[in-house]
Amino acid sequence: MKKLILFSVAIVGLSFASCKKDSSNSAGTARVSVKLTDAPGAYDAVILNIKQVVILSSGGEKIVEVNGNPIDILRFRNGKDTLLAGVDVPAGRLQEVRLVLNNTGNRVVINGVSYDLNTPSGQTSGVKLKVQDDLTSGIAYTLLLDFDAAQSIVTTGNGKYNLKPVIRAIPAAVSGALTGVVIPAAAFPRVYAIMGTDTVGTVADATGKFYFPGLAAGTYRVNFAPVTPYAVKTIDNVTVVNGSVKDLGSVTITQ
């Protein structure tokens, strides 16, 4: 799942790690972290004053306020990035991301001289980044905005500079999920997904369903600790893959 388009978005690595903590059923949403990185340009600094990140999917719209100082994006290149925001987004088809810039504070520095960047679209509706990819419920993503400074800054000819962003897109899901149904539901077990020293726990609901969103890819041991008089049950070698939900189906617990 890879693309390269102008005014687009990259979804890349988001790691998920937990140790002995409960996870809630977040069915219906995908966790998205928005990061910014840069492809180098021949400038001393390129400073963006970002106000909001707006993420639009077929499930709805999320507006994330970016609370921070203006960012010199040239500091984040050669594999470095900076986190702008993290948010739960309605699952569905990812359609558009918009970067809304503040009216002031956007600048380019050339040979020690600072110039204002004219960014009219970014100051109103936002710089629109078109992308078409699926956000799966319970799967974690990173939205890496790979800004190409060399192509994004345009000289007007009268000593002024316009910002016309060119952004590279590399979509990828970076976690998986695990689900299933306990039979009978009356066993009401606590369920633990264990990989190495990391343990994630949840509780089966009234219908017997259990759900682990945002699991790191790997092989797990799944333990079921039911109420009396039901017996403990273990399932070994459960493989979780990035970008998919592993369904254990019906898990029968006996007395």
Query: What is the approximate shape?
Result: elongated
Q: Total helix count?
A: 2
Strand content: over 45%
Helix content class: under 10%
Would you count the extended β strands for me? 23
Please describe the topology of this protein.
Layout lengths: L9 E3 L8 E2 L6 E11 L5 E4 L1 E8 L2 E6 L5 E2 L9 E9 L1 E10 L5 E4 L2 E6 L1 H4 L3 E9 L4 E9 H4 E3 L5 E3 L3 E2 L7 E8 L6 E6 L2 E6 L5 E7 L2 E8 L7 E8 L4 E8 L3
Parallel strand pairs: 2-19, 3-13, 11-15, 17-23
Antiparallel strand pairs: 1-13, 3-8, 4-7, 4-10, 5-6, 5-9, 9-12, 10-11, 13-16, 14-15, 17-20, 18-19, 18-21, 21-22
Summarize this structure briefly.
With 255 residues, this protein is mainly β. It has 2 helices and 23 strands. It is elongated, with a radius of gyration of 22 Å.
What descriptors fit this protein?
disordered N terminus; DUF4382 domain-containing protein; 3% helix; Immunoglobulin-like; 6-stranded mixed β-sheet; 255 residues; 2 domains; mainly beta; 5-stranded mixed β-sheet
